[in-house]
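> run fold Mucin desulfatase
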Amino acid sequence: MNNVSIIKICNQFKTQGLCSEGMLHGSGNIHDTYVCKTKHRRYLLQKINQHVFPAPHKVMENISLVTSFLQKKWQKISPQSAQRRVLTIIPTNTGENFYQDPQHNCWRMYNFIENSVCYENISNVFQGKEVAKSFAIFQKMLLDFPVEKLHVVIPQFHNIAKRFAQLKDAVLADDHQRYSSVKDFVQKLLQYEDFCKKVNEFEQSLPLKVVHNDTKVNNVLFDRESHQAVCIVDLDLVMPGFSIYDFGDLARSATCHKECGKFVFRSDYFATLLEGYIEEAVHFLTPQEKKYLIYSCKTIACELAFRFLTDYLEGDKYFKINYPLHNLDRVKRQIQFIDSLDRQQQSLEDMFRKYI
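> ok
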Protein backbone atom coordinates (compact mmCIF):
# COMPACT_ATOMS: atom_id res chain seq x y z
CA MET A 1 0.00 0.00 0.00
CA ASN A 2 1.15 3.54 -0.63
CA ASN A 3 1.99 6.08 2.05
CA VAL A 4 -1.26 8.04 1.60
CA SER A 5 -3.39 4.93 2.17
CA ILE A 6 -1.44 3.95 5.26
CA ILE A 7 -1.73 7.46 6.71
CA LYS A 8 -5.49 7.37 6.16
CA ILE A 9 -5.76 4.11 8.09
CA CYS A 10 -3.45 5.34 10.86
CA ASN A 11 -5.72 8.30 11.44
CA GLN A 12 -8.58 5.95 12.30
CA PHE A 13 -6.82 5.37 15.65
CA LYS A 14 -6.50 7.52 18.76
CA THR A 15 -2.92 8.62 18.24
CA GLN A 16 -1.23 11.66 19.77
CA GLY A 17 -1.58 13.96 16.78
CA LEU A 18 -2.30 13.11 13.16
CA CYS A 19 -0.17 10.59 11.33
CA SER A 20 2.15 12.12 8.72
CA GLU A 21 4.12 9.09 7.57
CA GLY A 22 3.71 5.33 7.23
CA MET A 23 6.57 3.01 6.30
CA LEU A 24 6.69 -0.76 5.75
CA HIS A 25 8.43 -2.41 8.68
CA GLY A 26 9.97 -5.80 9.45
CA SER A 27 9.89 -9.16 7.69
CA GLY A 28 7.12 -11.15 9.37
CA ASN A 29 5.71 -14.30 7.77
CA ILE A 30 2.05 -13.52 8.46
CA HIS A 31 1.00 -9.85 8.72
CA ASP A 32 1.82 -6.63 6.85
CA THR A 33 3.43 -4.25 9.35
CA TYR A 34 4.06 -0.50 9.16
CA VAL A 35 5.58 2.16 11.39
CA CYS A 36 3.42 5.27 11.57
CA LYS A 37 4.73 8.62 12.74
CA THR A 38 2.99 11.62 14.26
CA LYS A 39 4.52 14.84 15.55
CA HIS A 40 4.74 13.33 19.02
CA ARG A 41 5.62 9.64 18.65
CA ARG A 42 5.63 6.47 16.56
CA TYR A 43 3.16 3.61 16.39
CA LEU A 44 3.10 0.09 14.95
CA LEU A 45 0.25 -0.60 12.50
CA GLN A 46 -0.59 -4.10 11.28
CA LYS A 47 -2.99 -5.50 8.73
CA ILE A 48 -4.19 -8.78 10.22
CA ASN A 49 -3.90 -11.76 7.90
CA GLN A 50 -7.48 -13.01 7.86
CA HIS A 51 -6.61 -16.14 5.92
CA VAL A 52 -4.55 -17.25 8.91
CA PHE A 53 -6.81 -15.58 11.52
CA PRO A 54 -10.38 -15.61 10.16
CA ALA A 55 -11.76 -14.33 13.49
CA PRO A 56 -9.65 -11.23 14.23
CA HIS A 57 -12.07 -10.12 16.95
CA LYS A 58 -11.14 -13.23 18.95
CA VAL A 59 -7.43 -12.64 18.43
CA MET A 60 -7.73 -9.06 19.60
CA GLU A 61 -9.92 -9.95 22.56
CA ASN A 62 -7.26 -12.41 23.74
CA ILE A 63 -4.50 -9.85 23.31
CA SER A 64 -6.53 -7.19 25.13
CA LEU A 65 -7.20 -9.47 28.09
CA VAL A 66 -3.61 -10.66 28.41
CA THR A 67 -1.90 -7.30 27.93
CA SER A 68 -4.25 -5.62 30.44
CA PHE A 69 -3.52 -8.38 32.95
CA LEU A 70 0.25 -8.09 32.47
CA GLN A 71 0.24 -4.30 32.58
CA LYS A 72 -1.40 -4.35 36.02
CA LYS A 73 1.30 -6.71 37.26
CA TRP A 74 4.15 -4.68 35.82
CA GLN A 75 2.66 -1.51 37.30
CA LYS A 76 3.15 -3.07 40.73
CA ILE A 77 6.62 -4.46 39.99
CA SER A 78 8.12 -1.55 38.06
CA PRO A 79 5.74 1.38 37.39
CA GLN A 80 8.38 3.43 35.56
CA SER A 81 9.00 0.73 32.95
CA ALA A 82 5.57 -0.90 32.67
CA GLN A 83 4.82 0.74 29.28
CA ARG A 84 7.98 -0.83 27.84
CA ARG A 85 7.33 -4.26 29.34
CA VAL A 86 3.98 -4.95 27.67
CA LEU A 87 2.45 -4.00 24.32
CA THR A 88 -0.24 -1.32 24.52
CA ILE A 89 -3.17 -1.56 22.12
CA ILE A 90 -4.13 1.83 20.64
CA PRO A 91 -7.94 1.97 20.33
CA THR A 92 -9.72 3.24 17.24
CA ASN A 93 -11.51 6.59 17.24
CA THR A 94 -14.68 4.70 18.11
CA GLY A 95 -13.05 2.79 20.99
CA GLU A 96 -12.57 -0.58 19.31
CA ASN A 97 -9.37 -2.64 19.52
CA PHE A 98 -9.12 -2.98 15.73
CA TYR A 99 -10.35 -1.13 12.65
CA GLN A 100 -12.12 -2.67 9.66
CA ASP A 101 -11.69 -0.70 6.43
CA PRO A 102 -14.27 -0.50 3.58
CA GLN A 103 -12.61 -3.49 1.91
CA HIS A 104 -13.11 -5.50 5.13
CA ASN A 105 -9.39 -5.62 5.93
CA CYS A 106 -8.73 -5.56 9.67
CA TRP A 107 -6.08 -3.32 11.19
CA ARG A 108 -4.65 -2.90 14.67
CA MET A 109 -2.22 -0.49 16.27
CA TYR A 110 0.27 -0.78 19.13
CA ASN A 111 2.59 1.64 20.85
CA PHE A 112 6.04 1.60 19.23
CA ILE A 113 8.60 0.67 21.88
CA GLU A 114 11.42 3.12 21.28
CA ASN A 115 15.10 2.45 21.83
CA SER A 116 14.53 -1.27 21.35
CA VAL A 117 15.82 -3.84 18.91
CA CYS A 118 15.08 -7.46 18.04
CA TYR A 119 17.49 -10.07 16.76
CA GLU A 120 16.89 -12.87 14.29
CA ASN A 121 19.29 -15.16 16.14
CA ILE A 122 21.13 -15.23 19.44
CA SER A 123 24.80 -14.34 19.14
CA ASN A 124 26.04 -14.82 22.69
CA VAL A 125 25.28 -16.54 25.98
CA PHE A 126 23.74 -13.44 27.57
CA GLN A 127 21.21 -12.98 24.75
CA GLY A 128 20.23 -16.64 24.87
CA LYS A 129 19.60 -16.60 28.60
CA GLU A 130 17.67 -13.32 28.37
CA VAL A 131 15.34 -14.60 25.65
CA ALA A 132 14.62 -17.89 27.40
CA LYS A 133 14.19 -16.22 30.78
CA SER A 134 11.77 -13.66 29.26
CA PHE A 135 9.43 -16.32 27.93
CA ALA A 136 9.56 -18.17 31.25
CA ILE A 137 8.66 -14.95 33.09
CA PHE A 138 5.82 -14.39 30.60
CA GLN A 139 4.44 -17.83 31.45
CA LYS A 140 4.97 -17.33 35.19
CA MET A 141 3.15 -13.99 35.26
CA LEU A 142 0.14 -15.57 33.55
CA LEU A 143 -0.14 -18.61 35.82
CA ASP A 144 -3.06 -17.04 37.69
CA PHE A 145 -4.80 -15.77 34.56
CA PRO A 146 -8.12 -17.63 34.05
CA VAL A 147 -7.16 -19.64 30.98
CA GLU A 148 -10.80 -20.45 30.21
CA LYS A 149 -11.40 -16.79 29.28
CA LEU A 150 -9.20 -17.05 26.19
CA HIS A 151 -10.44 -18.01 22.75
CA VAL A 152 -8.74 -20.86 20.94
CA VAL A 153 -7.91 -18.86 17.81
CA ILE A 154 -6.43 -21.84 15.94
CA PRO A 155 -7.84 -25.13 17.27
CA GLN A 156 -5.27 -27.86 18.03
CA PHE A 157 -2.46 -25.57 16.97
CA HIS A 158 0.31 -27.75 18.42
CA ASN A 159 -1.41 -31.06 17.76
CA ILE A 160 1.33 -32.95 15.94
CA ALA A 161 -0.96 -35.87 15.07
CA LYS A 162 -3.34 -33.42 13.39
CA ARG A 163 -0.48 -31.83 11.44
CA PHE A 164 0.70 -35.28 10.36
CA ALA A 165 -2.81 -36.18 9.19
CA GLN A 166 -3.09 -32.88 7.28
CA LEU A 167 0.13 -33.69 5.45
CA LYS A 168 -1.18 -37.11 4.43
CA ASP A 169 -4.44 -35.52 3.25
CA ALA A 170 -2.53 -32.97 1.17
CA VAL A 171 -0.48 -35.74 -0.41
CA LEU A 172 -3.59 -37.70 -1.33
CA ALA A 173 -5.39 -34.65 -2.72
CA ASP A 174 -2.35 -33.27 -4.59
CA ASP A 175 -4.53 -30.37 -5.78
CA HIS A 176 -1.59 -28.52 -7.34
CA GLN A 177 0.16 -31.56 -8.87
CA ARG A 178 3.26 -31.06 -6.75
CA TYR A 179 3.58 -34.44 -5.03
CA SER A 180 5.78 -36.02 -7.71
CA SER A 181 8.49 -33.44 -7.06
CA VAL A 182 8.52 -33.92 -3.27
CA LYS A 183 8.23 -37.69 -2.85
CA ASP A 184 11.52 -37.94 -0.96
CA PHE A 185 10.46 -35.30 1.54
CA VAL A 186 7.11 -37.00 2.07
CA GLN A 187 8.67 -40.41 2.65
CA LYS A 188 11.13 -38.94 5.12
CA LEU A 189 8.43 -37.19 7.15
CA LEU A 190 6.13 -40.21 7.18
CA GLN A 191 8.82 -41.99 9.22
CA TYR A 192 7.91 -39.83 12.21
CA GLU A 193 4.47 -41.38 12.66
CA ASP A 194 5.45 -43.37 15.79
CA PHE A 195 7.01 -40.28 17.34
CA CYS A 196 3.74 -38.38 16.74
CA LYS A 197 1.81 -41.10 18.56
CA LYS A 198 4.21 -40.95 21.50
CA VAL A 199 3.78 -37.18 21.76
CA ASN A 200 0.00 -37.47 21.64
CA GLU A 201 0.13 -39.95 24.51
CA PHE A 202 2.25 -37.90 26.89
CA GLU A 203 0.28 -34.71 26.17
CA GLN A 204 -2.65 -36.28 28.02
CA SER A 205 -0.77 -35.70 31.29
CA LEU A 206 0.08 -32.03 30.69
CA PRO A 207 -1.92 -29.13 32.17
CA LEU A 208 -3.40 -26.39 29.99
CA LYS A 209 -1.85 -22.99 30.65
CA VAL A 210 -1.69 -19.58 28.97
CA VAL A 211 1.11 -19.83 26.43
CA HIS A 212 2.64 -17.61 23.74
CA ASN A 213 2.82 -20.20 20.93
CA ASP A 214 5.30 -18.28 18.75
CA THR A 215 8.47 -18.02 20.82
CA LYS A 216 11.03 -17.06 18.21
CA VAL A 217 14.07 -15.01 19.17
CA ASN A 218 12.81 -12.05 17.13
CA ASN A 219 9.65 -11.89 19.21
CA VAL A 220 11.63 -10.48 22.12
CA LEU A 221 12.58 -6.80 22.13
CA PHE A 222 15.90 -5.82 23.73
CA ASP A 223 16.82 -2.44 25.17
CA ARG A 224 19.50 -0.86 22.95
CA GLU A 225 21.46 0.49 25.91
CA SER A 226 21.20 -2.13 28.65
CA HIS A 227 20.92 -5.03 26.15
CA GLN A 228 18.37 -6.63 28.44
CA ALA A 229 15.15 -8.17 27.16
CA VAL A 230 12.24 -5.78 27.75
CA CYS A 231 9.11 -6.93 25.94
CA ILE A 232 7.48 -10.02 24.42
CA VAL A 233 5.71 -9.23 21.13
CA ASP A 234 3.59 -11.03 18.49
CA LEU A 235 0.74 -12.14 20.75
CA ASP A 236 -1.63 -13.42 18.06
CA LEU A 237 -1.42 -17.01 19.26
CA VAL A 238 -1.69 -16.42 22.99
CA MET A 239 -4.24 -19.00 24.09
CA PRO A 240 -4.56 -22.19 26.14
CA GLY A 241 -1.80 -24.67 25.42
CA PHE A 242 1.14 -26.67 26.76
CA SER A 243 3.97 -24.63 28.25
CA ILE A 244 6.70 -27.04 27.15
CA TYR A 245 6.12 -26.07 23.53
CA ASP A 246 6.95 -22.44 24.18
CA PHE A 247 10.40 -23.62 25.20
CA GLY A 248 10.51 -26.15 22.36
CA ASP A 249 9.69 -23.56 19.71
CA LEU A 250 12.31 -21.18 21.07
CA ALA A 251 14.93 -23.92 21.19
CA ARG A 252 14.08 -25.05 17.67
CA SER A 253 14.40 -21.57 16.21
CA ALA A 254 17.46 -20.47 18.19
CA THR A 255 19.60 -23.62 17.95
CA CYS A 256 19.18 -24.26 14.22
CA HIS A 257 22.34 -23.01 12.50
CA LYS A 258 23.88 -23.53 9.09
CA GLU A 259 27.32 -25.15 9.03
CA CYS A 260 29.11 -26.43 5.92
CA GLY A 261 25.94 -26.08 3.85
CA LYS A 262 23.66 -27.97 6.25
CA PHE A 263 21.45 -26.94 9.14
CA VAL A 264 22.51 -28.41 12.48
CA PHE A 265 21.45 -28.45 16.12
CA ARG A 266 23.72 -26.29 18.29
CA SER A 267 23.83 -28.05 21.65
CA ASP A 268 25.85 -25.19 23.22
CA TYR A 269 23.08 -22.72 22.40
CA PHE A 270 20.50 -25.19 23.71
CA ALA A 271 22.32 -25.41 27.05
CA THR A 272 22.20 -21.62 27.35
CA LEU A 273 18.47 -21.51 26.61
CA LEU A 274 17.68 -24.35 28.98
CA GLU A 275 19.62 -22.72 31.80
CA GLY A 276 17.86 -19.37 31.30
CA TYR A 277 14.40 -20.92 31.03
CA ILE A 278 14.74 -23.29 33.99
CA GLU A 279 16.05 -20.49 36.20
CA GLU A 280 12.46 -19.18 36.25
CA ALA A 281 10.39 -22.15 35.16
CA VAL A 282 11.73 -24.71 37.64
CA HIS A 283 9.40 -23.22 40.24
CA PHE A 284 6.19 -23.63 38.26
CA LEU A 285 6.64 -26.57 35.89
CA THR A 286 4.87 -29.74 36.99
CA PRO A 287 6.82 -33.04 37.25
CA GLN A 288 5.24 -34.20 33.99
CA GLU A 289 6.18 -30.97 32.21
CA LYS A 290 9.79 -31.36 33.37
CA LYS A 291 9.79 -34.99 32.24
CA TYR A 292 8.61 -34.28 28.71
CA LEU A 293 10.36 -30.95 28.11
CA ILE A 294 13.20 -32.89 26.47
CA TYR A 295 10.91 -33.84 23.56
CA SER A 296 9.55 -30.34 22.97
CA CYS A 297 12.19 -29.14 20.51
CA LYS A 298 11.91 -32.16 18.21
CA THR A 299 8.11 -32.03 18.41
CA ILE A 300 8.02 -28.44 17.13
CA ALA A 301 10.58 -29.13 14.41
CA CYS A 302 8.56 -32.11 13.14
CA GLU A 303 5.34 -30.15 13.31
CA LEU A 304 6.84 -27.30 11.29
CA ALA A 305 8.22 -29.68 8.69
CA PHE A 306 4.72 -31.15 8.30
CA ARG A 307 3.17 -27.68 8.05
CA PHE A 308 5.67 -26.30 5.52
CA LEU A 309 5.31 -29.32 3.24
CA THR A 310 1.52 -29.30 3.59
CA ASP A 311 1.46 -25.61 2.68
CA TYR A 312 3.61 -26.24 -0.38
CA LEU A 313 1.34 -29.07 -1.56
CA GLU A 314 -1.71 -26.84 -1.02
CA GLY A 315 -0.34 -23.95 -3.06
CA ASP A 316 1.59 -21.87 -0.49
CA LYS A 317 -1.51 -20.36 1.11
CA TYR A 318 -0.45 -19.97 4.75
CA PHE A 319 3.19 -18.90 4.99
CA LYS A 320 4.55 -15.94 3.06
CA ILE A 321 7.06 -17.03 0.43
CA ASN A 322 9.78 -14.99 -1.26
CA TYR A 323 10.37 -17.43 -4.11
CA PRO A 324 8.55 -20.50 -5.54
CA LEU A 325 10.40 -23.17 -3.55
CA HIS A 326 10.66 -21.25 -0.29
CA ASN A 327 8.47 -23.69 1.65
CA LEU A 328 10.51 -26.65 0.38
CA ASP A 329 13.70 -25.02 1.60
CA ARG A 330 12.01 -24.61 4.97
CA VAL A 331 11.14 -28.33 4.97
CA LYS A 332 14.72 -29.26 4.14
CA ARG A 333 15.99 -27.07 6.97
CA GLN A 334 13.75 -28.77 9.54
CA ILE A 335 14.67 -32.26 8.35
CA GLN A 336 18.40 -31.54 8.58
CA PHE A 337 17.89 -30.03 12.00
CA ILE A 338 15.93 -33.04 13.30
CA ASP A 339 18.60 -35.44 12.01
CA SER A 340 21.29 -33.42 13.79
CA LEU A 341 19.19 -33.27 16.97
CA ASP A 342 18.71 -37.05 16.94
CA ARG A 343 22.47 -37.59 16.57
CA GLN A 344 23.04 -35.53 19.73
CA GLN A 345 20.38 -37.20 21.88
CA GLN A 346 22.91 -38.27 24.53
CA SER A 347 24.19 -34.71 24.87
CA LEU A 348 20.60 -33.55 25.25
CA GLU A 349 19.92 -36.04 28.01
CA ASP A 350 23.08 -34.99 29.85
CA MET A 351 21.95 -31.33 29.80
CA PHE A 352 18.54 -32.17 31.24
CA ARG A 353 20.13 -34.17 34.04
CA LYS A 354 22.29 -31.14 34.83
CA TYR A 355 19.63 -28.43 34.83
CA ILE A 356 16.42 -30.21 35.84
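The longest helix spans residues 56-77.
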